[in-house]
Design a protein that fits this description.
The structure is a single chain. By secondary structure, this protein is of the alpha/beta class. It is 48% helix and 15% strand. α2 crosses α3. The protein is globular and about 45 Å long. The site of adenosine monophosphate has 18 residues, from α2 and α3.
């Protein structure tokens, strides 16, 4: 099963993607996580990506597409995957589409997690991320067991640099301009499904399960 998560930054794509991946035993692939791991390890890719990410801008397609295509070519992706944060532009979607078509394959579902901008701004300030294992929490809605510590790996949780209020509005603008058009792209392909992302995360997941069966 090949699934794409669509939605604004902070809509809950990652939260849902991790639950879907666990349920179906397929990898959760987040281009944002891949970039953050590269930043943490001080790679050339990380240094380049950081310049864009810190401003709330998209990392250029030339850098992003290659890492994604390399990742989905790995063995653990043979039975499918959940993409979270990719594609984010029409050219990225076209490249993925072409690569899959060449393999006689296709995306099964593009799930749009729909959340209005005003809810997003509130959510982002409360997001806490573990840069070690990629787990995500919310200080009010989905708190860790011990404040500031990751339940899964015990490392410190941080407010992502790009979750600071001054950057969140830029990211929302970029989303509306460059990423929202993907909703029509996948609607035309007949694979678009929409869930109301303002519900409690368990109810959002129940709606996703109804779609995936
Ligand atoms: P995205 O991957 O779309 O950027 P995340 O999954 O990281 O979004 O979620 C953004 C923030 O909102 C996180 O702090 C997360 O814990 C929280 N969150 C996710 N889903 C819900 C929900 N249904 N209700 C409330 N908060 C949520
Ligand atoms: P995310 O973790 O999905 O919120 O992504 C964090 C940041 O990484 C984004 O704001 C972009 O700067 C960058 N990024 C992640 N995925 C992509 C992508 N598919 N295309 C371009 N930039 C991306």
């Amino acid at each position: 099963m090949k699934i794409i998560m669509l939605g604004a930054p902070g809509a809950g794509k990652g939260t849902q993607a991790k639950m879907i991946a666990e349920k179906y035993g397929v990898p959760h692939i987040s281009t944002g996580d891949i970039f953050r791991a590269n930043i943490k390890n001080g790679t050339q890719l990380g240094m380049e990506a950081k310049q864009y990410m810190d401003q709330g801008l998209l990392v250029p397609d030339e850098l992003t597409v290659k890492i994604l295509l390399d990742r989905v070519a790995q063995d653990d992706c043979q039975n499918g995957y959940v993409l979270d944060g990719f594609p984010r532009t029409i050219p990225q979607a076209q490249v993925l589409d072409k690569a899959l078509t060449e393999l006689g394959d296709k995306i099964d579902y593009a799930i749009d997690v729909d959340v209005p901008d005003e809810n997003i701004v509130k959510r982002m300030g409360g997001r806490r991320a573990c840069l070690s294992c990629g787990a995500t929490y919310h200080i009010e809605h989905i708190p860790p067991k011990a404040e500031g510590i990751c339940d899964k790996c015990g490392q410190e949780l941080v407010l992502r640099d790009d979750d600071k209020p001054e950057t969140v509005q830029n990211r929302l603008n970029v989303y509306h301009e460059q990423t929202q058009p993907l909703i029509d792209f996948y609607k035309e392909k007949g694979v678009l499904k929409t869930v109301d992302g303002t519900m409690d995360m368990k109810d959002v997941f129940a709606a996703v399960m109804t779609i995936l069966g």
